[in-house]
Design brief:
With 128 residues, this protein is mainly α. 77% of the residues lie in helices and 0% in strands.
């Protein structure tokens, strides 16, 4: 069976990109909740602080970027999938490949900021 380009996209890339986005969104939001909870517990006294407030804010900002990029990437992947299925959302149609490229860029940003957050926290705790 010979599939055209949009059918191949819907059969494989769309599903894989959707799963990747859901995983990034889940891990990033869970990490953000953990960081905020840990910040709340750690900010009670100055003598027990492990990480400064600036480092918490920076890591929380990176995780927020990751959550936003993963969420927008999931939405753009939906738009690309509907464009490939010939459902004209926002007039995408045959331009679903361009939207898919933005999805890849957003997922790279989401993963990069997630890894940067983990590395920042790893080095701040002195575990190298």
């Amino acid at each position: 069976m010979d599939l055209n380009e949009s059918e191949r996209f819907l059969a494989f890339n769309y599903k894989e990109l959707k799963d990747l986005g859901k995983h990034f969104l889940t891990i990033s939001s869970a990490s953000l909740v953990f960081i905020l909870t840990f910040f709340d517990r750690n900010s009670l006294s100055e003598s027990t602080k492990i990480i400064s407030n600036t480092e918490y804010k920076f890591s929380g900002g990176l995780l927020a970027i990751s959550v936003i990029c993963a969420g927008v990437g999931l939405f753009l992947n939906y738009i690309a999938g509907s464009g490939a299925a010939k459902s004209m959302i926002w007039g995408i149609g045959k331009n679903y490949r361009l939207v898919t490229k933005f999805t890849y860029i957003l997922y790279i940003l989401a993963g990069g900021s997630l890894v940067a957050t983990y590395l920042l926290l790893l080095f701040q705790f002195g575990i190298t």
